[in-house]
């Protein structure tokens, strides 16, 4: 568990498939939950027990209001379209704007991205690249963060309640229950052993974990100063990155 207990968590992407489950899981764990929603009329009734904060994650000022007073943030957002602008503004932009809004304030962060962000080809190349850029920005911030890369979302039966936390991003097409993803994200902000870790998440045969600490503790930490996760492939050279990304990284790392 955490040496610095988390009381209030902001969920970004709260109305989504995973976000709704994160809100419910966080409430079950006794946290106060704040949910960023674009349309509070629509979100009322969808997120019982959460405090709704209306805002758009593409506007840093909206996030500034949303993060006031929270000690943890969980991001499960995703763009509706796969247009280049959406991916940059939403999938990546949420992380960039969150860091701007926090302005150096050290809160716990759990970011959901995806398996296969290390891949350099395929149908989802663009979205995976922008998700990986968001990961890199978060690592560069130095915040106490955890990055969760789920496998394919599924609803699985009672025989697959165990979880496998892996590193190196080598598996393709394997599934994870959406409730496992939500639980992992909430456990990540509540458990010190999860800080500085990046991992893929899959379902496995067996019962649900009673304690996530040994699972997190068994992972290798991301190397200090590295933009990539432990065991990631060094296949995204900074020199080939979009100018906006390099500027954002330079600002965070203090490079001239
Ligand atoms: N499907 C899979 O098997 C799989 C596996 C691994 C990773 N993933 C990734 O997981 C991500 C999320 O999945 P999901 O199924 O939970 O997505 P989802 O149901 O589409 O939810 C996306 C969330 O992001 C919010 N959002 C989008 N743009 C926003 C904006 N400008 N301001 C505020 N909120 C905004 C949406 O809010 P609204 O309700 O207002 O639209 C919604 O709450 C996706 O990006 C996907 O790539 C998926």
Largest sheet: 8 strands, mixed
User: Looking at CATH, which topology would you report?
Assistant: Rossmann fold
The global form is globular
Which quaternary structure do these chains form? single chain
SSE pattern, N- to C-terminal: EHEHEHEHEHEEEEHEHH
Low-pLDDT ranges: none
Secondary structure: helix percent: 25-40%
Bound molecules: NADP nicotinamide-adenine-dinucleotide phosphate
Task: Let me know the average pLDDT.
Answer: 95
What is the CATH H-level superfamily? Answer: NAD(P)-binding Rossmann-like Domain
Q: Tell me the strand percentage band.
A: 15-25%
Number of strands: 10
Structural class: alpha/beta
CATH class: Alpha Beta
- Gyration radius, in Å: 17 Å
- Taking the alpha carbons of the first and last residues, their distance comes to 38 Å
The number of distinct structural domains comes to 1
| Largest sheet: spatial strand order | 3-2-1-4-5-6-10-8
What is the architecture at the second tier of CATH?
A: 3-Layer(aba) Sandwich
Description of the structure:
The chain has helices spanning 17-28, 40-43, 60-67, 84-102, 125-141, 178-190, 213-217, 243-253, and strands spanning 8-12, 32-37, 51-54, 72-75, 108-112, 145-150, 152-154, 162-166, 175-177, 197-204. The protein is of the alpha/beta class. The longest helix has 19 residues, at 84-102. It is globular, with a radius of gyration of 17 Å. The chain binds NADP nicotinamide-adenine-dinucleotide phosphate. NADP nicotinamide-adenine-dinucleotide phosphate binds at residues 13-19, 36, 38, 56-58, 76-79, 90, 114, 127, 150, 152-153. NADP nicotinamide-adenine-dinucleotide phosphate is lined by residues 13-19, 36, 38, 56-58, 76-79, 90, 114, 127, 150, 152-153.
